[in-house]
Amino acid sequence: MSAPSNVVSASPTSPENAAPRNAAARRIPRAVTVSAWAVPVMVLGQFALIAGVPVMVALVGALTRVRDRAVRAGAVIVTVAFAIPLTVWLVRPDGAQSLSKDIHPAFVGLIVAASAALIFTLHRARRR
């Protein structure tokens, strides 16, 4: 007769037997997150033209490295919201000397709101 074992066997539903989640597939690149935060800071800080760099980093990073469709859509919305006033500024012959002086406050609000939505979707995708 064998002595009872003090070792508790793990049930099929216990956390020890749970399949490990594929963290690499759901990983959000840090450059996309930093860029998403940098866009509204730069636009509100009157560095709107330079904000094009983090806009492009967020777009390319989201489209190539992130699987979540909401993050991809958010990056596209930020890019479109930024591209419209940039195009208007470039096309107008009587435009201001800088994009920050020429951009309408409604577009600044739109860019900040779109960036906030992108930041939220990045956070949500990271928590899944």
Question: If you had to describe this structure to a student in words, what would you say it looks like?
Answer:
The protein has helices at residues 23-26, 30-44, 52-65, 69-91, 99-102, 105-127. The mean pLDDT is 86. The protein has 128 residues and is mainly alpha-helical. The chain is built from 6 helices and no strands.
* Dominant shape: elongated
Number of helical regions:
6
Let me know the largest β-sheet.
none
The N- to C-terminal Cα distance equals 49 Å
Provide the residue-averaged pLDDT.
86
Strand fraction band?
A: under 5%
Count of beta strands: 0
Structure class = mainly alpha
- CA-based gyration radius: 23 Å
Reading the helices and strands in chain order gives HHHHHH
Low-confidence stretches: none
User: What's the oligomerization state?
Assistant: single chain
**DSSP helix fraction:** 55-70%
Outline of this structure?
Helix content is 65%, strand content 0%. It has helices at 23-26, 30-44, 52-65, 69-91, 99-102, 105-127. The chain is elongated and about 95 Å long.
